[in-house]
Amino acid sequence: MTTAQTEQTAAVSAPDLATIRAAHERIRAQIHRTPVFTSESLDAVAGAHLFFKCENLQKTGSFKFRGATNAVFSLSDEEAKRGVITVSSGNHGAAISLAARRRGISAWVVMPGEAPRAKRQAVEAYGGRVTECEYSMESREAVCKALQKQTGAILIHPYNNARVIAGQGTAALELLEEVPDLDIVVAPVSGGGLLSGTAIASKSLRPSIRVVGAEPKNADDAYRSFAAGRIESAANTETIADGLRAVLCPLTFSILRQHVDEIALVTEEEILSAMRLLWERLKLIVEPSGAVSAGIVLHNKIDPRGKRIGIILSGGNLDLDQIPFARAAK
Amino acid sequence: MTTAQTEQTAAVSAPDLATIRAAHERIRAQIHRTPVFTSESLDAVAGAHLFFKCENLQKTGSFKFRGATNAVFSLSDEEAKRGVITVSSGNHGAAISLAARRRGISAWVVMPGEAPRAKRQAVEAYGGRVTECEYSMESREAVCKALQKQTGAILIHPYNNARVIAGQGTAALELLEEVPDLDIVVAPVSGGGLLSGTAIASKSLRPSIRVVGAEPKNADDAYRSFAAGRIESAANTETIADGLRAVLCPLTFSILRQHVDEIALVTEEEILSAMRLLWERLKLIVEPSGAVSAGIVLHNKIDPRGKRIGIILSGGNLDLDQIPFARAAK
Questions:
Q1: ipTM of predicted complex
Q2: pTM exceeds cut of 0.90
Q3: A316, B15, B118, B293: least buried by Cβ within 10 Å?
Q4: Which residues of chain B does A41 touch, with a Cβ-Cβ cutoff of 8 Å?
């Protein structure tokens, strides 16, 4: 098999449980095995038993480091020395940057100029080279292709990549190892990498589990796609959950249709309210995108009563100068 | 021994390691064994190996639940049925309230009217009955004595109580069980209960360890007392670390003089800077008082270079409407 074929295969075929287990073996020395938090007071709010998988405590502050590390460390030495490139509004870019630095290779990150300052700084702190683009998908792809041609770097797409998806699935793998008898597992959905990996791992380990994707009502492309049976874009993407504005790709859409039971939506107010509850009760910094999965449980978008529910808190990166529920200090 | 004698003995004699171990046995099923966090990026800031004992993740959001639980569960059934009373600007009051509820008894908490709203709400949420007083020590004691007389409740002082001190010492006990080879351990000092328990446990388990108390420069009574050889009050107590404004008592002062190597001071700016770093890098909500111990390490008030340093993050309760470094959201 040629390198080109390997890359193509990696990109288009869905991973299975064995692939996710292999990914876990590959990355386990590089990542944090993140803790699972519980809270009596949040259980009381939901009327359920909640198990929070704290990927906000993952290295680089989000689950993205799992998929990025699996992808970067799956490359052959020959591939790796060309460096890696990606398009990311932040967390995937930071994750790729650190994974590349760990492997001793270069990373280029194409990022909209308007991305949160904290996320851009993180990419640079991990040694990634930021190249700015416009916000449009066309601009991102054009800038990325030009840079790829110029550098020879290998593209690691944030979710249209089976190695990335397999890496993201390791969070649910750990969660179900620790709490095997979950009734429901909830993960946020944007491009669908985390939810795909979560769904494959969860349904393989526990076929009776209900897998729910959580999405902002203001960026409801996955919800619409699920309903329509084809990939649709959102009416708008004006959400505080800035990490959840991407659109599904054919690979993730096909995995979600096969393994996900439901996509549930939350409003902006519900996202903020959930985020504040997590900060108050868990004493954890969770970014708005990371609070969306908790939002659908704490605001009864699914019926949580009496259930054992795993909730993936996907990330904790936000600009502390712009905490959305903070008033100016005295 | 009469009940009155038992109470007196509990209040005036310093606990030893055996007492702290017994306290741990008594409370271990009630408390969280809090995690110890590490951070490569904070290690790089300090040039040291830092081990954060996360008492902000303790039940009720602070280490105070350890001492409160030990004191409440040490009472005889006859004593307990009278209920308990305390004076607290917040965290000890919340801790006593939950400990009392767990034991099925009443708790009265005397609290200045100006205490942070979030702390008052926590007391009430745990079933404690708040009675307001003026900010002065005289008012607190007068209100407390009147209420004690009226209700017959047993006073559990926030730190002038050996059972409370023994309970607080269990945090360092757990920390040194997990990381036995620490060079330095740092805890904040206010009335001195946590630092006393930390010092006794740490010096007993590891005589070579250096025990450092961390105090706001703006409420430097322990620093002055240490220097003067007698209990002194601070010049003022205008500090953002609102939990660190109490003054040592003879019991804690005598323990600190025996077991603590140094009291180090941090400015208000350094407290805020440390707190922000903890939020950013550990993704943990730590209150200003809880960040003081990290502040003396991250701002080089002691020489941390190359050392293995245990840092007790004492609490995570603050009003999220008044985050001190937040600007108003966009």
A1: 0.91
A2: yes
A3: B118
A4: 125
